[in-house]
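Is it possible to get an amino acid sequence alongside its tokenized fold?
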Amino acid sequence: MVLGPTASGKTRLASYLAAQLDGEIISADSRQVYKQLDIGTGKDLGEYTVEGKIIPYHAINIVEPSEQFYLHQFVEVLKNSFDEISSKNKWPIICGGSGLYLDALHKDFSFTQIKEDFELRAALEHVSKPELVARLLTFPSELIAQVDQNSMKRLIRGIEIATFRKANPDFIKTQTLPYKPFYLGIKTEKEERSKNIYQRLITRLDEGMIEEAESLLKNGISHERLQLFGLEYKFLSWFLQNKISREELITQLHLAIVQFSKRQMTWFRKMEKEGVRIHWIDASAEPLEVLGELKKALS
């Protein structure tokens, strides 16, 4: 498993390791599943060719941008891809930085299959956060252990799931996950990360990121839907609606991505507190050096 904050070089390292270890890559990026979202999501598909060798990849370009893709669907794609790669006696190399997708390697998310209870949601929609927390805490601790109590949306979903599980105790059976990942984390200093994010942003604008957003709009994607695809597309939507200038697009989007990278690092620290051991490597480390360390750790 190769993880790290945005613009740290995850894809490049994962592709190199896959080429050397005869592996295939499973993307753990919540936006790269969507077709037509190439530049803004940083698919960097050119990096999946290493020294003339094409590295197969999974969980990329599998959903139309008009469709929704949920966590339980990723869990299924992850399992199927993992089994397919393993059946060929190849190395599954998971690469990405989307927190919940990374958690799917060490947490059972069977409960995500539970459908929305729209009647319950309507009843909870105007309830205050303290009242939602109080209601959540009326359920047994094992039903609410993973609920983020800082998010109104997740509190309501947590109550929804806990309500269903309490009424249907046999529906969810804890699964034994087949993954025993070795986590490689790419470490970057704040200043270096900010610089890399800025340089990558300028490169993507030069490569046609604005035109990509325009194309999505022409193909029927609304501005509201476009903004749900993450920071890049939210700011591009504002720019294309003349709400911000090109200069504001660059400065504000750069700052927002830097702040996002900080949240990613916070998530990785949370994973470590939960018992996940991440072997951190410096972003400047040579891939060959990383390969040697990996082989040594796995031997």
